[in-house]
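Box 3.1. Reading complex inputs
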Amino acid sequence: MTGSVGIVIVSHSIDVAKGAADMVRQMVGEEVRVAYCGGNAEGGLGTDVTLILQAINSIWSPKGVAIMVDLGGAETNSEMAVEMLPAERRGSIVICNAPIVEGAVMAAAEAAGGGSLERVRAAAEELSAN
Amino acid sequence: MERKPPSSVKPQTPSFPHSPDEKAGGTVKLVHAVGMHARPAVKLSKLAKRFRSRIAVRVVGASEWIDAKSVAKVMAMRAPCDSTIEFAAAGADARAAVGALTALVANDFPDIDG
């Protein structure tokens, strides 16, 4: 299903990131394109621009990618990763303002239904809009 | 000059105003042991998104209808086990949508292929 928006989960903890990705796969389905990364290059808590970039590229599709982040550095490093993408990809990627686990599940459910990148972002952010 | 809705449309149907489309509705008892929690909500909204019709859902008697295609809203319904769920749809495939969704709930949310 290359025609769906991909979800990237970026946490400071690889365990949180993997757990969130597992929840997405089990609750929404295997058809969802999901990648995750977490931890810094030394294996501790943190986020790493190179790993984020790899995660984005591993599930890239022309429909775009929605990134779910946890705390501050995850967002700034994700923004840096986006800036390092080729220009033609930069316009098809969003960082969602949503709780990482819930947002990932909501975003994936919308993506699995064939929703556009904007709709996927809206689904993720619906929770924090209340 | 106001157009009055056909008499067959009950006033409690959700606000799909002035829709000339096919309309359908149905109720089904929620048999899932823990009610409409996360996983059933994902399945329900995923199935709803397969249809082009607008689809609304509520616990019977609730004042507000919810967009059945919004997983966040369906999850927030918090419908308990043994409650009765009501669907209403408007659009070209409204009847098929209500049929599929009531079957999903009645059959306790079986895994859907693909």
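In summary: Chain B touches chain A through 13 residues (CB under 8 Å).
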